[in-house]
């Protein structure tokens, strides 16, 4: 049983996180990351902001905006419902606790924060739109992607398109090309669309608040909007990303499914309560930094954590350990040691008298008033023998359990420690699909070997990227070959069907699809001219292929082709597939030629095991 008393309505509602409307407005709060702006600069910014507000209002009144976000009244109503159904155990109780959290976290962040290119750029940038752009690009790239991977992409991106105007005038092809290998390609496309919208419809100015950012810009959701607004514009708005989910679920011992709407709503409320009005961007970044570097998924370093003293997960572990040690054979009898008496549950400690009534040699009962009678009188059973059965509650008539605690079917697992939090309902496995794809090559084309690539449609999975001609198909069989041949001939005209070889398989998991590529190869014989490809297709050299806007999955496919074509090194670890027996052994001369044309795989080429859209 969880230590949280299962309380149905919150006796501390006035202290609960409902700060959306009372949060300081951006114009009044000074962004902490800014260097002290001079009066003239501030005045210019105010004018800029006021003009910008007018522009945003005009755009918002047009029909070209996303549906309104759940803010204002709707959001407050959600919060009232939420507060009525959770225990105060999962809240921050009072300003002292909130202040301690902010101060500890910010002090740690100032000391320990990583030196990252987007932070450097944003801190050194005075122009608000440029700063917002720097933050926007980094936040979009960091979604679902590791910091280490993003650094190089971010640096190249900002070198190529240092301003929104530069990005707006870029081609989608160029954007896809730079994004290749980063995964979730729609992110780059949306960023490009957003830049165009800012330049063409908003006079080159990025919307200044989380609400307008979310409403006006494609691909900008609640998190990204909050991050840009708080980091670039100093708006006191909290954010919740995967790292913050983990930190807050642990700090407030939230054991319910962290992907549920209820938990999500609660976490956003907590984030809003915690955000520091004087340093909102830093506080948000500090919480994310803590999750990324200290409160990590598998191996949290609690001993180095700046908010350990406020962390309920950590307190729970300590209590479990204490109880375990006291019940070991040979350890002092708990009945004899006053200090070992269980203390009232932290959830009730603010209101419980703490008087313990012995009902058995090692078991105490305490009655605690956690709220107005009759709903919130709690009994509190404590016993080392029960180890962790720490609190329970007389629920009010018709009430149920606290909805933020773990369900009774998933009890505390002592071997997991603080990683008992957060909990996620098991995800649906990705859908399985099969695709047949073929590397069609002219090895002796005039001007050097060429391979055929075709462009994917402009919407859907991997929209606009280039790939080898492919067909979605059944897993194997003659029909697969025939379907693939038809597709190849659609692009390249009549082909020698007998030369189509099956080379192996590549399995790539996208966000929601596990796609198995059946890899084929077809090398055209003799010296063939480079034919003019129809619209939507191109004959590329190997070098062009490696810099083109192709997905990681296609790079894997090409490696299989390279590993299995004549002249390839046998036993290549990169292509763990069996070579077809019909593939001819190449002559030594051919091997030499092939090695000359072997592609250069850049050091920063994405991992074969990467999982991304
Ligand atoms: Fe800090 Fe550990 Fe609590 Fe995470 S679980 S917030 S690392 S004390
Ligand atoms: Zn609870």
What do these coordinates show?
It is an enzyme of class 3 (hydrolase). It catalyses: Hydrolyzes free adenine bases from 7,8-dihydro-8-oxoguanine:adenine mismatched double-stranded DNA, leaving an apurinic site. Residues 1-75, 565-613 are annotated as: Disordered. The structure is a single chain. With 613 residues, the chain is α+β, with helices and mostly antiparallel strands. Among the domains are: 95-318, Orthogonal Bundle (Endonuclease Iii, domain 2); 431-565, Nucleoside Triphosphate Pyrophosphohydrolase (Alpha-Beta Complex). The protein has helices at 39-61, 72-84, 95-112, 117-124, 128-142, 147-160, 164-168, 172-179, 186-201, 210-216, 222-233, 242-251, 261-274, 280-293, 312-326, 478-492, 542-547, 552-564, 588-597, and strands at 357-360, 363-369, 377-382, 431-442, 450-455, 466-467, 470-472, 501-509, 513-523, 537-540. The strands form two sheets. Strands 4, 5, 6, 7, 8, 9 and 10 form a seven-stranded mixed sheet that branches. A three-stranded antiparallel sheet has the order 1-2-3, with no helix packed on it. α10 (210-216) crosses α11 (222-233). The longest helix is centred in the first third of the chain and has 23 residues, at 39-61. The chain is globular and about 80 Å long. 39% of the residues are buried. Mean pLDDT is 76; it is low at 1-43, 330-355, 369-378, 383-400 and 570-613. It binds iron/sulfur cluster (SF4) and zinc ion (ZN).
């Amino acid at each position: 049983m969880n230590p949280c008393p299962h309380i149905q309505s919150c006796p501390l509602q006035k202290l609960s996180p409902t700060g959306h409307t009372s949060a300081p407005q951006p114009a009044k709060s000074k962004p902490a990351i800014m260097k002290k702006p001079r009066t003239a600069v501030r005045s210019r910014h105010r004018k800029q902001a006021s003009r910008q507000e007018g522009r945003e209002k005009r755009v918002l009144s047009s029909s070209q905006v996303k549906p309104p976000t759940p803010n204002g009244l709707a959001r407050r109503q959600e919060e009232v419902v939420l507060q009525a159904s959770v225990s105060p155990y999962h809240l921050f109780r009072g300003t002292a606790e909130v202040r301690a959290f902010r101060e500890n976290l910010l002090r740690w962040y100032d000391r320990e924060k990583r030196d990252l290119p987007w932070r450097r750029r944003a801190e050194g940038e005075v122009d608000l739109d440029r700063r917002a752009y720097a933050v926007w690009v980094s936040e979009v790239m960091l979604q679902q992607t590791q910091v280490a991977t993003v650094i190089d992409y971010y640096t190249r991106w900002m070198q190529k398109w240092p301003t929104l105007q530069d990005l707006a005038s870029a081609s989608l092809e160029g954007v896809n090309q730079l994004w290749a290998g980063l995964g979730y390609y729609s992110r780059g496309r949306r960023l490009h669309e957003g830049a165009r919208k800012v330049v063409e419809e908003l006079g080159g100015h990025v919307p200044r608040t989380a609400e307008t950012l979310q409403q006006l810009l494609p691909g900008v959701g609640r998190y990204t909007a909050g991050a840009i607004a708080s980091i670039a514009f100093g708006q006191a708005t909290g954010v919740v990303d995967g790292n913050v989910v983990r930190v807050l679920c642990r700090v407030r011992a939230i054991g319910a499914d962290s992907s549920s709407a209820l938990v999500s709503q609660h976490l956003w409320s907590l984030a809003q309560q915690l955000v520091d009005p004087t340093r909102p961007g830093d506080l948000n970044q500090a919480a994310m930094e803590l999750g990324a570097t200290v409160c990590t998924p598998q191996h949290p370093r609690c001993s180095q954590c700046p908010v350990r003293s406020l962390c309920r997960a950590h307190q729970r572990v300590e209590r479990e350990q204490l109880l375990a040690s006291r019940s070991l054979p040979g350890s002092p009898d708990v009945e004899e040691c006053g200090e070992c008496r269980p203390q009232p549950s932290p959830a009730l400690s603010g209101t419980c008298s703490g008087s313990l009534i012995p009902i058995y040699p090692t078991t105490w009962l305490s009655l605690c008033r956690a709220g107005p009678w009759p709903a919130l009188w709690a009994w509190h059973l404590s016993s080392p023998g029960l180890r962790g059965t720490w609190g329970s509650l007389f629920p009010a008539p018709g009430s149920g359990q606290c909805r933020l605690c773990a369900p009774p079917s998933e009890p505390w697992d002592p071997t997991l420690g603080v990683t008992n939090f957060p909990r996620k309902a098991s995800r649906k496995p990705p859908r399985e699909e099969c695709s047949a794809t073929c590397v069609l090559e002219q090895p002796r084309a005039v001007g050097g070997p060429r391979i055929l690539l075709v462009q994917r449609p402009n919407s859907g999975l991997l929209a606009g990227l280039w790939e080898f001609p492919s067909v979605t198909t059944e897993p194997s069989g003659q029909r697969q070959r025939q379907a693939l041949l038809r597709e190849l001939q659609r692009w390249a005209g009549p082909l020698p069907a007998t030369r189509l070889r099956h080379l192996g398989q590549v399995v790539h998991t996208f966000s929601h699809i596990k796609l198995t590529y059946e890899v084929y190869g077809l090398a055209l014989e003799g010296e063939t001219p480079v034919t003019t490809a129809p619209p939507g297709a191109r004959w590329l050299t190997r070098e062009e292929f490696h810099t083109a806007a192709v997905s990681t999955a296609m790079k894997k496919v090409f490696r299989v082709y390279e590993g299995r074509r004549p002249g390839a090194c046998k036993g290549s670890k990169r292509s763990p597939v069996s070579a077809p027996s019909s593939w001819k052994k190449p002559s030594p001369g051919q091997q030499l030629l092939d090695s000359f044309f072997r592609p250069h795989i850049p050091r920063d080429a994405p991992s074969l095991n990467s999982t991304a859209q």
